[in-house]
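Researcher: Let's run the pair from yesterday's discussion. Sequence first, then tokens, for each.
Model: Starting with the first of the pair.
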Amino acid sequence: MNAKRIIPCLDVHDGRVVKGIHFARIKDVGDPIVCAMEYERQGADELVFLDISATVEHRHTTVGLVRETAEKISVPLTVGGGIRTLDDFRELFDAGAARISVGTAAVRTPDLIKAAAEAFGSDKVVLAIDAKSSGTDSGTGEEKYSVYVSGGSEDTGIDLVEWAIKGAELGAGEILLTSIDRDGMKTGFDLEMLNAVCAATDIPVIASGGGGDLASFSDLFLETPVDAALAASIFHFGLYTVGDIKNELRTHGIKVR
């Protein structure tokens, strides 16, 4: 078993880290640089920096803040939000990003994934997918999920599993899969959704949305083959540290870094 990664997420709006529920009702959490340094101190394997309003506001990611954050930490920083062109990729790599996450732009222009993978390498391209339950398939009885874009405000009608397969075929090196239904709820990860995507693709998957008590993280890695868990609320509001989660995983024989 490869070592599992624990990844705090910094959702950034107007230069501040925020957190909401179901992608709404956001609350101010703090300064992104201060948060990033603290999570590295706690033992985070990497960090994800998402400019959550960049796409909706039709602007680019706050490059200056990305640069300042990257300069203060040594763990890899994945950046997403408002990225639409290869020039956006280059600018953020120059600012210190280790990897780039694309969601809405990938749906709008799928060839962006292929072009970025060819230009920078698949390992530098993360396909961000925000998904929500669309009901049960009447034929199979399996839960179905729809892909959402623009900060979770627009249902594309695209089937989650089909999009994950296509994204992998286009060259994405990893999938960051967020359950909108579970976002901010701290009720546990959507294991059925995660297993469906893992079974359909052969690239690593980061689970996001629903991390709550310590057991939810051990359940995640014991019951799905995901490579990493991303969380925000539990870290931002001091419920647990990265170290707390890693210690819990070790007690279940789950390898961590």
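Model: Moving on to the second of the pair.
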Amino acid sequence: MPVTSAYLDDVRQQLWARDAFSFIPDRQLPEPTGTPQRTTSPGAPRLLFAGFPSDYSLAFLLGLLDLDVELCAIVTSPGAHPAILGHNALSRIADHLGIPILREWRINDEHPRRELASFDADAVVMASFDQIIGAKALAIPRHGWLNIHPSKLPLYRGPEPVYWTIADGAAEAGITLHRAAPRFDAGPILAQRVLPVAPDDTAGTLTRKLSQAGVEALPEALGKLLRDDPGTPLDMEQATYRPSVGHRNLRGAVSAAEAERMVRAGLPNMPAYVDSDGRCLYVLAARRVDACPEGRGLTWADGALQLVETREACGCHHDEPDCPHREPAA
């Protein structure tokens, strides 16, 4: 383990103790204590990490610290969440390691590119980032960028593949570690893992499983990137793309089966909602039943959806009933 400390051990333990992982970039950590021990080999590759203070990104940042690499800086994108501008999981780890955190509003502008170039990096590892990296920025590290996308590419290209994997009722999910290209999720594959989707998986439980599989595949993919392995090109004729999603209205579902999947797909990042008696209720748990009493669920031709747990706050960073992320009924 090239970088170890009691603080990092605690962070790892607390992260992997969670049953579900979130993409919400508001993850906080306590102020670091102690001094990390480094056992990195001479000539170890110099890396940057790009991501968010989310469970998903944190898993891969910690995975990198287990490898024989020199992490030089952490890059993040401030526009995704107010927490990114203050102390958060990424800034705390950067402070602990004594490395910079770069909050780049526009990664492709000249000044951020100069900042990236100043680290003389061999590669950048990216796990959840809301900016398309242009050709000039991609060319800065000697061996390019490794992107980690939680789908079985070329399926489910786009910003929220785990959501759509569950909402569509897909039988399997994947995580793909691939060379980044100046398009969304289009570069050649360096490593890929495929997992079955359980009938009770939420976006959170599935994200945790995919993160674990992706961290295990990280040495394989990073090794190929650093050797300039061309990877396996994506068959873009088979590609699918799904857009970002907000809080979806369950009354827009065409069946109880679809509504139940919408509930699981929305947890924990963007819960589905229903209007009831003039109130907006965000649904945290539901189950399919043959019928349920009026006012305690929704009914379709294939049965009913009983609302088991609801709340009036949305749970995303707006955390209000009338959240701007709410989508109207279809």
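Researcher: Give me one sentence on the second I can quote.
Model: The two ends are 51 Å apart (CA to CA).
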